[in-house]
Specification:
Blueprint (H helix, E strand, L loop, with lengths): L6 E5 L25 H13 L12 E5 L6 E6 L7 E5 H6 L2 H15 L35 H9 L5
Parallel strand pairs: 2-4
Antiparallel strand pairs: 1-3, 3-4
Length: about 160
């Protein structure tokens, strides 16, 4: 079976820039840029808090921060044979945005690479995106902040309940 996803990308200009204190990391992730380690660790911890065991090292998910060609692309998950399950975060995005926004994008890309989730474009009646798995190409409003984070992370791991 041939799996053709190529690159899934996410638009970056509509992402919130909420300030958040930096996170500490304790895990080591092979073939992952050390700046991404705390976010990979946080993702695993959020899964575990929901009764889901995730080991990104065992799954071979790698990650890098580098220039991504194309406008308004904050991150990508590659399913190519060259870099299977590889998260790439755009360096310009990484240098400009807050911890919370970085978490949003890393979790989104891990949603593709780990959970094999596609984009979800629906929105609430107030126009806010239902999922952090939105593509950023349609008109829902990002609402990922300290007050809504729990709901968005729950939806990431349990999309059928939302």
């Amino acid at each position: 079976m041939l799996l053709i996803f190529g690159f899934m990308s996410c638009k970056k200009d509509s992402i919130l820039n909420e300030e958040e204190s930096p996170i500490e990391q304790n895990g080591v992730y092979e073939n992952v840029d050390p700046e991404l380690w705390p976010y990979f660790q946080r993702y695993e911890e959020e899964a575990k808090a929901r009764g889901i065991e995730v080991d990104l090292n065992a799954k071979g998910i790698s990650g890098s921060i580098q220039d991504i060609e194309g406008q308004n692309v904050a991150g990508q998950c590659s399913f190519s044979s060259h870099f299977p399950n590889h998260v790439t975060i755009d360096i310009d995005f990484w240098e400009r945005y807050s911890d919370r926004t970085k978490e949003f994008v890393v979790f989104h890309e891990l949603g593709h690479c780990d959970l094999l989730r596609g984009h979800r474009e629906d929105k609430f009646t107030n126009g806010a995106c239902v999922s952090l798995m939105r593509s950023g190409t349609l008109d829902c409003i990002d609402n990922y902040n300290s007050a809504t984070r729990l709901s968005y992370v729950n939806e990431l791991f349990f999309p059928d309940e939302f």
